Amino acid sequence: MPMTLTEIYAEARQLSPEQSAELIDLLLVDTFNRPDPAVEEAWGKEIDRRLAELESGKVKGIPAGEVIADVRKIVGL
Questions:
Q1: What are the φ and ψ backbone dihedral angles of 60, each rounded to 5 degrees?
Q2: 20: which residues sit within 8 A by CB, 6+ positions away?
Q3: Which domain holds residue 35?
Q4: pLDDT (tens digit, 9 = 90+) per residue, 10-57?
Q5: Which of 11, 15, 22, 67 has a Cα at 20 to 30 A from 54?
Q6: What is the DSSP string of the chain?
Q7: How far apart are CA 19 and CA 58, in angstroms?
Q8: What distances in angstroms separate CA 49 from CA 23, 24, 60, 71, one per listed residue?
């Protein structure tokens, strides 16, 4: 008999943060791996815009370690 969603959730809560992130990524890819050409084009333009802003010095990037530390504080890890 397949596990219920409640059972799956209880098991998933036992995972490490890294394993949880990997599981989430796998589920998202499996669920939403149907790229919409319009969305892909819009993201391409957004990426180009953001990269141009970084390269021109208009905006300053935040180091990944700093961002991750901030997120961990927010979510209580």
A1: -115, 135
A2: 12
A3: 5-75
A4: 999 999 999 999 999 999 988 988 778 899 899 999 999 999 999 999
A5: 22
A6: -PPPHHHHHHHHTTS-HHHHHHHHHHHHHHHH----HHHHHHHHHHHHHHHHHHHHTSS----HHHHHHHHHHHHT-
A7: 36
A8: 31, 28, 14, 25
